[in-house]
Structure formats: structure tokens, C-alpha cells
Amino acid sequence: MPAGDRPELPTLVGRDRERELLHEALDQARRGCGGTIFLVGGDGMGKSRLTLETTHRGRRAGMGVLLGRAGSTVRAVALRPLTEALALLFRTEPILEHACLRPYRSALGDLIPEYRSTETATTAPSPVLLAEAVLRLLSVTGTGRGCLLALEDLHDTDPATLAVVEYLADNIADQGTLLLATLRPEPGPAWDLAQALGRRCSGTVLRLEPLGRRAVHLLAASRLGLAPERIPEPVLDRLCRDSAGNPFLATELLRAMQDSGTLVVESGGCFLVDEVQTEVPPTVRHSVIDQADRLGPAGRHLLTAAAVIGERFPISVLGRALRMKQDDLLGHLRAAVTAGLLAAEGDDHDWYAFRTMTTAVALLGQLTPTDQAALALQSVDAVNELYPGLPGEWCRFTARLAQLAGDVRGAVRLLALAGRRDLNAGRLRSATETLDRAWRLSQASADNPLRADVLHELLCALVESGEARRGLRLLDNLDDLCHPAVPPERLAAVHVLFARLALLAGRRADAATQLDAARTVLGPGAHDRQTAAVDAVAAAHLGPDAPERAARLATHAVQKAEFAGLPGVACLGWQERGMLARRQGADEAQCCFAQMRRLAERHHLPLWRNRAAVLLAEQRWLLTGDTDALLRAAERARRTGASAARHTVDVLLAWDHALRAEYAEAERLVEECAAEAHRLGLGDSAPLLALVRAVCAGHRGRRHQLDAVLAGLSDDGTGPPVAALAHGMAATVCALLEEDPGRARRELDRAAACDAGRPAPYPLTGQQGLGLLLAVLDGDADWRRCCEVGATPAGRLHWNRQFVLLAKAVLLGRQGERDAAGAAVTAVRRAQAHPVVVHLGLRLVAPAAHADRWGDPVDWLRGAEEYFCRAGLPAPARACRAHLRRLGVVVPYRRTTSRVPQPLRMIGVTEREYEVLQLMADWSDNRSIASELFISPRTVEKHVASLIAKTEQANRAALSRYAARVRDEVTPD
What we know:
Helix content is about 65%, strand content about 5%. Helix 37 (about 785-790) packs antiparallel against helix 38. The protein is elongated. The two termini are about 80 Å apart.
């Protein structure tokens, strides 16, 4: 076929180096310098494609091109590739009578029928003479233009052909002929010849390595007719994984993915449809089976057995399952590795893997289900013999084989055992995944006691990981497990775990139902060992409503569990005791959590140890404000997959950011925690997240936002326990920032009422802190009361302690102990953990300090005024300026355009008008505004009229409502 009529070849990708080397060799041959190149690679690596590329280039350059192939479907025919190559030459070029070839006519008779005669037909030519004749023939063919002799599949050829190839390679350098031979890197005469010629520099061995990710990317783009950037990463990931860089496999898999609908190609790109499975293409399957067959019956049997074991397999198990001698096993493995079917796995000499998953799937497709089951059963027996007790990953490994062998019950037991081990070791992600597999597999089993055991372990993992929503979906399976064969103790334990999940989800009524069901199953005569967990979870359920009864139940749970040898249940009891004790302060709670940690360490319970670490870190934060331990606990929880613990820490960190006036970070964490809580179904964290939102709003003086949050926290005794905290920590501070001390005291009273109805989880509702400071300033609390509060565990908490110190400073100042009073304020200022309330506290105590002549109230007020101005809190800033003026300090009038929000600046609102507008948000009259701003009521009236016109409000009342919205919604630049 003329070169111009040949079909266009597909784009050659990833072989630039090899192509350049072959092109250079062709150019050298045309210049009269011959050579030999052995192109070595496994099936599908592109040997034939590179050969075609080279022959096409040779033809385009006018070279004499001879192409022959050894047959692989029948027994090797002597000299077949040479005969095929020379036949092509004599069909196209008249060189039979060339003078240089006449002496070699008889030698060429076996290759060229025209040279065969009756006298020489029965006489075999000398191999050397035949090789020299071929060499002369190639020389004549390449005269003045160069010659290319390409022989494909040299591994399938006969010894006579190899003898000619060796002679040519040794003698071809001085004539313009390039000998290009392809072969597989497998043991045999052809491979030995290529290696020998390479060692003596008579030939170059060019190995074809698998394509890299970039080359596979370009190959996919070329075959799909798309730009490379249009190939998404998931498509590329699957192609690289399943083809292992083999160009033939990659091309065939792409075609199969398109044909099956797994890969959808559009004009703008392509995408995967994961629900659609891709079968192994017939061409790939045939190629794999052909390679396996070349290893012989024993080698193929070894490969199919390995495919049953898995894509990765240990050769110790493979050899024991097949009862194969070590030498035979290693010999077959070496052959499979050389053939490119297998590869050693890392540094572990016992593990091997299939080069591609497709190879294993194709081999499995040749087995009947009965054959697979038999091989899997042999492998199960082998693992049990080699690794008694199935330590480590062998349990999970054997479970898959047991399932393949048809032993579903055995597979479930092994998966449950593996999951339980992961759970005990603190590997939550692995435990949850494994136990979920066991549960889904157990649906095919009628063994209800086994299913109950698996469900119990799975629920334990889901409780520890905080996946409440996922766990509660399993409630529908309870009816199936109410079977006489299921022990009551196991069924009761399942009910208790559902109760814990319901508490995590904030579904307290469901938790009570499950606890009642557990008590009913156990009956009135249940042993302490059986009821300890019920008591511990019941304590958690009753804590918000009946703390005293809950504390008794938690104590009973600890006693029962420790006596019965149930350390996990004892840890749960200590946790509940500590959380109940925390409402009064830190000391007893610290002891409970420390005991919980000691118990967990003594009995090697990593999950309980981590949970104790979170609780102790929380206590440290409450006492000192230090978050380092919380951050370490969060990292530990992230590593182990303890989502509930990490979520708890993140909520606490959001709360800490809010108290530190880092509102953007607090709100970011709140949003992330809310999304995580929704995903996991952790409804119990919603009130605490609402508290953080309340603090963010209240500490910025955003009354409308605060009221919206408080509306969701009922304070009638039925709402969440954090309602008391929201009123004490957020609403009270907001009222003080509005310069409304009367409202602040009412908020403190409301917080106390909420705390009496449903005690808050932390003693931070104001009675032991901010309320004490206000009482001291009003003269309603004396030194004795202050010392009593300061000595309580609650008074020593970081949030409360700053107010206790300020209260003591005021009382010390009244007693004339000026230095001690100043030192107390200095301690508060040095901490600066909560800037809003610190500056607010200084603004509150400054008048008392001035009256009693201690401290530096002028400096405090100046610092507070500066802070409040920058924070966009005008009311306390004005109060600070007013107090400074009363102290005789000249206060410069602040005129910064940044004070006026941009939307108001755009309509022409001035700085003074903006100050009037801010005061109108509280519905103040002209006289009050004038007094606050030190201007006349008539001037105020002018500003109000101007504001009504600029903001397009109907009247003064509408302007006041507008001012309230601006205060809450618009942030100054």
C-alpha cells in the first residue's frame, strides 16, 4: 500500500523519548551507519504502535522497509518473520538478479521461492551462510537510501530466526540497515539474546515503561477528542488506577466505559456515572487470559487463586492454600512478575499485587462460583493455620474470604470481631465502617443473637463517633430482634445505646422511652451488672430537670459498675457525676473527670481517656481561659474520628472566640458546627450554639439580634438550660452596653429564675460574677458577701473571677486600701481575656475609684472610650466621655467619617446627625439627647428634621424604628 494511502495512525502519547531515539536510528541508517534496537515491553505497552510509527517514517523517507512477525497462534514456523519480511520486498522490488546476491541464491532458497532449485531443496544451508545471505540482501536493499528490517514478537520465533538476528546484529553496523525487533520481557531464548547483545554493545535494549499520569491524561484527551483540561480528575483517577499506565488497557477501558454509559462524553467535556458498572472489555479479558496461559497450567492456577484472595495477596497464604512448595511458588511468581501481571508490594516480601485491578477481575471471570468458593475456603483455612486467632488485619482479611466461600455467618462474626477490636483501640472510623459492613451482611442471616451482637457493637461505635442521626435510623430493626433467642441483657444494652443516641440528638422523650424499654426487658430482679448502664444514662436524661436524683443515679451507676468490673460503664457514671457537679463549680467536677481518666488508663480504654481529656480541657478553660488543652483535644478527636468530641470542642472554641470579641471567627465556627450537627443529628448542641450567637449579638450591642436568639430559648422553665446563661452572659452585658443598669438587673433576675427552674450546665449566670459587681456598686453587697462568692468554686472560674476582682477593688477602695484596690484592677486589665466586659467593668468602677481616690480612673475611661468607639458601641463611649468631663478632663470631640456607615454617608448624614440617630434608637426625647450630646434641644430638633428628610421616613416614630434597625444591621466602615 502506498504511503499516502495508509490510514492515519492514532496519536502516539507518552513515548517521546523512544520515538526520538528510533527516528535518530533511522537517520543514522540512511547515512550508512546501521544498528540493532530491541523494543521490550509487556502486552499492550505500545511495541507495535512504535514499530508502525517507525516503519511509516522510514517509508516517508524513501527507505527500504521490511516488516515480519512471528506467529503466536500456532507452533513456531522456521524463519517465518524473515520469510514474511523478504516476501514483501520481492513483491515490490526487482532485485532477484543483483550480482551481489548470485552467490547466495541457494542459501536464500528457504526464504525466497524464486531462488529455490531442485538440487538444493533437500540440503539445509549453513546457518551462518543464511545469515550472511540475508545481510547481503539487506545491504542491496538499502543501497543509497537505507533499510529498515522490523521483526515483531521475537519471543514467539524459532531458533533459526534468532541465529540470523544475532548474526545481523553483530555485523550490521557498517551498512545502512536498522534492525528493529520487539519482544516481551519474559524468560526465553529471545530475551536471553537481547540481553547478551546489549551486554556486548551489538544492540540497544529499549524498555517501555508504563505511562505516567500526565501521559494517560493526554491519551484520554486524544481518544475522546477533548482538550486535556476537559478531562475531570475522577475520570483520570479511574483510568490510571485500572490501566496502571498500560496504553492498550487505557484505550480499551475508555471505550468500554463509553459503551456501558459509565463515561458520558459531551461537547464541553465528560463525566462519570458511578452507578453504572463497567465490564472488563473482551479484548482486555482475552489479553489477560492469554498472558496467564503462557505461564502454564500451574502458573495460571496460581494467578486465579491469587485473584480470589484479592487484588493484594500474601504469598504465604497463597502457597498454603494451594499446598505448593516454596520453590515452585516463587518460580511461578517470578514468571508472573516478569510477564507484568504481578508486582511486589512495597518492602514487605510477603505481599504481592496485581498490576491492575482489571487483571484480577478478568481472571475471576474464568471461574465458576463453585470454583471461587472452593478457593476462598482453602484460603480461609490457610489464614487460620498461619495466624491463629487472626490478629490485626487478618480478621477483616479473612472475613471477605469467608463471604466469598458462602459462609455469611462466619464473615459477620469476623467483621464484628474486627470492629470491636478497632473500637477498643480507639480507631472509630475503621470500627464504624467495619461494623456497618457486618450489620449489612447480617441482614442475610437468620441468626438473631448474632445480629443483636453486631447491632450493639455498631451502636457503640456510632455513639462514640456522635453519629446520632445514622444510629437512630436503626430503631426500626428492634422489632426483629425481640426474639426468645436474644438474651435480655443484650437487648437491654441495645435499648440503652439507643437512649444515648436520642440524648445526643436532643430527643429526650425518645431517650426516656428506650430507658423504660430497657428496664422492662431486664425485669424487676435484674442484677447490678445489668442495670448499671441504665442508671448512668438515666442520670444524663434527668440531669436538666432533677439534678439531685440524677446525681444519686450516677453515683449508683459508678458503684455498680466498679463492683461488677465494667470500667466503660463506670467511666460513663463518672462523666455524668462530673457534669452535674460542674454546675456548682470546678473542684468536684475536676475530681470526677480525673477519676474517669485514671479508670480509662488503667483498663486501656482510649475512647474514654480521650473523652476525659476533653472534659478536663474544658475545666481548664473554665478556670483559666486557656484553650491550649482544648486545641490538643480537638486534634486528638480529629485523628481518631470522634466527631462528637471534636464537635463539643469546636462549640467551646466558638464560645471562647465570642467572649474574646473575635466575632468573625466565632460565627464561622458556629456555622460549621451547625452544619456538622445537622449532618450527624447532634440536636443537643443547638442550645449551646444559640448561646454563642447570643453572646456575639449581646456583646456588640445588637439588641434585635439578641432578642431573636432569646426568643428561641424559652425561660419559663421548659426551655434549654442555657437560657440562664444567655440572660446572664449576653442580655445583661447588652443592657449595660446600652447604659441601662435597670434592665441589666432585670436580666440577672431572669437568669437566676431560669437557673432555678432548669439549672445551667455552668455557674456563669451572673450571680457569682457580674451580679456581685453591680450589687457592690449599688451598696447591696459587703466585703463578707464578696469574699464568700470569691471563695466558691464558681467564683474562681475565669469569667466570674474578673468581676469578683473588680468588686473587691471597689470595696478595698472604700476601706482606704488604695494600693490593694489598684492591684486588683491591674490584675483584671493584665488578663484582657474578655475585652468587652473588661472595659465595661472599668467604666463601671471608675466613678467609685474617683470618689474614693484610688487607681487611675481617667486612664481607664480613656482606654474604654477608645475601645468602645472602635467597637461601634456609642452608648458606653458617650458615657465614658461624660464621666471624663465630670472629672474635669478635656475630651476632644470625635469626628471621624468612618463612624458614619457608608449607606448613611451616601445620603448625606453627618457625624452629629448620626449620633442623634443612634440615640433615637432608644426612643429618647429631645431633652435627653441634648443632655447626652451637650447641645441644645432646638439643635436636636433640627437634626431630627434633617434625618427624617434624608432617610425618607414618615415621622419621628418611623425614624426611631429606622434607627433601631441601623444600629443592629449596619456596621461602620
